[in-house]
Amino acid sequence: MAKAREYSDPSVYNAHHTRFEQEGLPHGQTAWLDRARQVAEILAQDAAQRDIDNIAPRAEISLLKSAGLLKVLGPTKYGGGGETWETGYKVIREVSKGDGSIGMLLGYHVLWSTTANVVGTAEQQDSAQEIIIGNNYFVGGAVNPRDSDLKITSDGDTLTFDGHKNFNTGGVVSDLTVLEGVLEGTEDHMFTIIKTDQPGIRFAHNWDSVGLRLTESGSVKIDNVKVPWADALGWDPETKRPITDVLGIPFASLLLPTIQLVFSNFYLGIAQGALDAAAKYTVKGTRPWPFGGDNKDKASEEWYILERYGTYRAHLNAADALADRAGAETAKVYAEAGQHGSTIIDSQATLTNVTTNGNGHTNGHTLSGSRSAISARQRGELATLVASAKVVTTDTGLTVTSGIFEMLGARATGKKYGFDRYWRDVRTHSLHDPVAYKKREVGVWHLLDEVPEPTWYT
């Protein structure tokens, strides 16, 4: 049996809950980013202590809920913000400045909450958004491609999911969970969204890594979870097959570059938060070095400290611009395919769902609905731009979060300050998939003009 888990108490944020609920949802990107900054400031106040305590972040998820941030991409007809991925990425980045764990949870939620938009039919998309946005649900996901696929068996109108995943981000504090597996007797992958609170979902509560300690990314056992065939995203419940057409264009594989850019944005936000926190400490707490021969009255006047802050700020500014460019391009591709945020805007076309089999090859399936196909080249060029952002934000994030100590001094290594959590957070998640492969993808594109093939990590 899993050990009992301690959860943070949502009532600690009651004053903020009341204020945000009275103010309602933001309108426009500027207002959404201002709301995200307010949440980041609240989280930053005790982020170091919460990292030490390592308590499941039910309260912090409740803060995201009352602030409306879970709804940023949701359709307005169900009470969502109706924003595009360009805004969504920036919101993730802002929250991550205050707490990398909560920024990561928000990022994964935004991706998983839009899964049906990409791999489901128009009807499934609408139904999923009504449930998720209408109820302000937080969505986790048990979709770790490095583990064995969940086994899916069919019995009449019911599907049964069984298996184990070593990583399940946010599941412990989620309302809904995305499952993915392979239908028995085929190589076809299937996504569905289920209620988390059920006997067949058993969490091990074993997440205890050096970083991102509040993401609840431990293992989960999926045991005899029943799902109606109608909830298999992009499948025909009558024929028990993916809804097909002849196009074979990889729209649904956009899920992969979309989430890779989620990663880049919380890496970047963590690094930006680290540099901002370091600057405040340097101004107030770092003592000048008295043995340098060019002694200053304040540490903030020392040339090497100014030079280092300037270097880090310049590199973060460059990473910020690249992430913004990739975010804008992602939003553009979705818009050209007929989506604005989570809302379909083109009611005539069809959508091709390219799933990936166990060998990394793709199977083309078109879902009847209201989205236009995109070309493999268009999808590949976006993936390459996202890979560039991943390279830069990983390298810059690790450099900044480890380097800030040189401008802080020995006392800043005190556990109570929590400066180490920034590096631990970036280091932990940047091992998700080797950044060397992202560098190779960019190199192949530049040298040979070849875009990467869709895989679970590209």
Key descriptive features of the protein:
alpha+beta, Butyryl-Coa Dehydrogenase, subunit A, domain 1, Butyryl-CoA Dehydrogenase, subunit A, domain 3, 3 domains, two-stranded antiparallel sheet, 13 helices
Total tally of structural domains: 3
The top level CATH class name of the largest domain: Mainly Alpha
Provide the low-confidence segments as ranges.
Answer: 245-250, 342-370
Per DSSP, the total helix count is 13
- Cα(first) to Cα(last) distance is 37 Å
Estimate the strand proportion: 5-15%
Order of helices and strands: HHHHHHHHEEEEEEEEEHHEEEEHHH
Largest beta sheet, briefly? 7 strands, mixed
Q: Output mean pLDDT.
A: 91
CATH topology of the largest domain: the name is Butyryl-CoA Dehydrogenase, subunit A, domain 3
Number of strands: 13
Describe the structure in your own words:
With 458 residues, the protein is α+β, with helices and mostly antiparallel strands. 45% of the residues lie in helices and 15% in strands. The chain is built from 13 helices and 13 strands. The protein has helices at residues 14-23, 29-44, 47-53, 58-67, 85-98, 100-112, 115-119, 122-135, 255-285, 303-336, 376-403, 420-429, 435-448, and strands spanning 139-142, 150-155, 158-165, 176-183, 189-195, 201-203, 220-228, 235-236, 241-242, 339-340, 343-344, 350-356, 362-368. The strands form four sheets. Strands 1, 2, 3, 4, 5, 6 and 7 form a seven-stranded mixed beta sheet that branches. A hairpin with a 2-residue loop joins β10 (339-340) and β11 (343-344). The longest helix is centred in the last third of the chain and has 34 residues, at 303-336. The chain is globular. The protein starts with 13 loop residues before the first helix and ends in a 10-residue tail after the last helix.
